[in-house]
Amino acid sequence: MTESQPQQRFRDIQFNKIEIKAISHTTVKELIGSLNNKVFDQQFETKYANHMNERVFVFKVIYDGQGWEIRRTVGQFIQLEQDMANNIFYYIFQKKKITGSLETDDPKKTLVLLHKFLQMITCNEIIPQCALTFLEISCINLPFKMKECFMEKKSGSRTTTSCCESLETKLAKWQKRYFIITQQSLLYLKGPEKDKCQIRECLSFDSDFSFQYGKKETGDDNKIIIQFSQRKLILRAGNLTIFIDFIYSLFRSIKDSPYTKLHRFGSFSPIRTSECKWYIDGDKYFEDVCDAILKAKETIYITDWWLSPEVYLKRPVDVRKYAQSSEFLYTRLDNVLKLAADKGVQVLVLLYNALLQFLYNDPKHAKMQLESMSPNIRVLKHPPQKIPKIFSHHEKMVVIDQKIGFMGGLDLCFGRWDTQKHPLFEVHPFEQLWPQIDFSNSRVRDFFDVRNYEATLLKENEPRMPWHDIAIQIKGDTVIDLSRHFVQYWNHVMMTKQNKKKQQLIHANDLKMEGFVPNNTSSFVDYSNVVYTGRKESLIQMKQPILLDEIKTQEVQIEMNHTIQQQEHIETQQQSNAQQFIQQQHKDFQNYQKYEKKFIQKQEDDNDDEDEDQNYYVLQTQQQNQNKQKSKMKMEKSKMKIEKSELKNQGNTEGIQARINLEFFIPHIDMNQNQQSCITQLTRSSCKWSTGIRQTEKSIQNAYLSLIEDAKHFIYIENQFFISNTAGYPVKNLVAQALISKIKEAHEKQQRFKVIVFVPLLPGFEGEIDQSNSAVLKVQLHFEYQTISRGGKSIIEQLKQEGIKPENYIQFFGLRQHELSPQPNSIPVTEIIYIHSKLMIVDDQVALIGSANINDRSLQGNRDSELAIIVQDQVTVDTIMDGQPYVASKFAHTLRTSLYMEHFDMPYEKVIDPLNLQFEKESTAQANINTRMYKQVFACYPHDDIKKVSDYQEFKANKHLDEYDQFKQYIKGHAVIFPLQFLCEEDMNIKVSQKEYYVPEISFT
């Protein structure tokens, strides 16, 4: 495959396009003084007093629509003239040396003469390379740059644990390299000419960035030592003039970069404004990704845990056309990417390099298939698998032209596409929603040979496992940060042994800078904000700028059935809402240190007590629960009828809390997914192994803790896992403890507060609970139940110990679906809806959407790599909270109510207020009814009546499929009660006799 050159726009120099403007003259000392930094100490300035007073002439070079400043001394002009005199093209100018007639005592005249000299050079049809280098014109097209020049670089000096690092540095050779300082990074190449203009490394300015220079710090007057997250650079300038200009340019560049300090939640990404659109489940998400790819003009970036080239992005697929070259084939991912690549779009894909011995992802197949489609498609796998790594690249991201971003929980792979109806079977014989291998159920039979994508995995009457997920589309400034993460990840992979001599990527800001404004721009204002700084995670108060001009509404058309006065009220409030949000940021992390000290210490103390007392407490609780749970089926049926009649009665009464005529008060809210102008911030879990950075970033966990701490009314969570520190050793993340603290605080203040958690009823691993291959399934359940309700330190147990009724403050639900299998052998079947979402909504104000599960793998930062975005809409809606009028964020509110309407099968008017007691009673009662119906008809697990594995067969024997038609009418929505007593008498931890015992325990948490 030919080597593609993504992002870098290489060019042939067209000399008639070069324009030179004389700007000003100054001295070296005045130039350095303009930085408002103490750049050089008094000893340096005294030693080089003559040089510090040397005159510097500033010119603006304009080429190809771009402009930049160059700063030159007379000495540099003399050197240029000498270099050109040795060039055959300058022979005719040898007798016209301008620098010999300079009047150095009159800088204004000198500036004019030097300007004429440069004009004379650039008016020629051919300009020698030495002149182009003098003007800092190279064959790489970078619209925004600070400086280009040659420097000497010492080889080596990468971040390593080698004991020979010091010796290697001493023996390293000095090499001449061409450096480019941009606003976001330092690049180096072999040279500015087209045949040498290959980016050997793109080193990002970040919070780890620092540099030392001068003899006192480096032992050499002209030496510079620059520290990045990825590596250390040791440079040496050819003379003092180049040295000082390089230092000056570095200072200016890092001053303008928003990435040289950590921001809220300890994130690399600043707070931005973006347009956002949420997705529930995969159908519309896959469709929009497909359309965006087909509209791409320059670049497509994709990162996935698993990518299936043969997955269809638009459904249904007409299986009658498989043998034809028809239009529908182009909705298959590999063909869609080929169409884009054939137009010249550079397609870059990063995949987690899973080993086939452990996972079915087969990234090797994805790489071979995609790269065979076009030379413009490039796929990298990471990490290298010489030694298997137990952690993974788990982020899911698509970025189009560095302008549109897609992210969340959805990989572009088999088994992810679904609708909010979550059918179990195909309903049309030809137009299929899940063609071929995509009709799958990993609980019954996991994928094993994804290359054989035309195979059928399931048998007759075996249902697919529905897939519930959340994702988001972003347009605007945060896409710059998404692109930056991709570039950092890509370049890290490129620096592995097999790729290190290939082309690296450049940051989006360095290429386009759309939506980026330097920090020193006058349109910024300061506000108090909590940020991380330095190498320690200490919290300090700093001022962080945000662009107010971009916090106003982006003229989003909200078609709401409001009065004109209400629309005007919304528009005028948007900017003040944004300012209020920003002003509250200084509170975000005041309690984080308390968590770090108090809860970690408590966890360490508790880990010493995994004990007989806990077992005694659990046994006592189990006996009580067994007595409560045992009842006859007739009693259950009668109870269900009573509850059903209660539901009907409740539906005719006013809300208990809201003494407001809901029909009069509730405005019509447009639920259409037009783009909303939002305040956004990207967070991530990232570390040395995943992206090459030295300091681990766990800003996703920090965001979880901070948002939970700031919650005032309720928290809604959907997640694939729920494993936190209350499970005990070795789990460390503090999400569960933060929830406990928040509930305790609300209880002490006697405030209404609610946490709703949706998690999968079972982990998505193959195997039945009574089979030998269910060890991984059971150990996941072990840690989840230890977090939620067992072991003596769980959420529910800690609340009970404080005299708090857990059910008043926190509830756990799962999702399940039922359906008749297709004819002719039609039977009733049921299957769990697998919750793969990674979502938290707080107070209908803020949403956290990403790829991170609630477990240590995702949240500790140094394990799986993850991405998540924090979203607060600037468009507000009038709603109800705890029976009172309430102004909510439209993005969060519409997402939460849409999910409630899907899960509980209730109209908007009933789910508008998450704290309404009437809604709470109805939703809980309906989930209980659903749970009982599934038990009565299907005898499906998990269920509270199955206390140990040996109960399963007897429980399963009590199904009554013949009663399906009678009872299916009572099942509304998909929500069921999460069974907290399931396998409560079973030790689900891994046994020594099982092969999984020899896998590190942290791989399951």
From TrEMBL:
One of its GO terms (molecular function) is phospholipase D activity. Residues 619-649 are annotated as: Disordered. InterPro entries: PH_domain, PLD-like_dom, PLipase_D/transphosphatidylase, PLipase_D_euk, PLipase_D_fam. PROSITE patterns: PLD (PS50035). It catalyses: a 1,2-diacyl-sn-glycero-3-phosphocholine + H2O = a 1,2-diacyl-sn-glycero-3-phosphate + choline + H(+). Its EC number is 3.1.4.4. GO terms for biological process: phospholipid catabolic process. One of its GO terms (cellular component) is plasma membrane. Residues 389-416, 831-858 form the PLD phosphodiesterase domain. Residues 633-647 have a biased composition (Basic and acidic residues). Keywords: Hydrolase, Lipid degradation, Lipid metabolism, Repeat. Belongs to the phospholipase D family. PANTHER family: PHOSPHOLIPASE, PHOSPHOLIPASE D. This is Phospholipase.
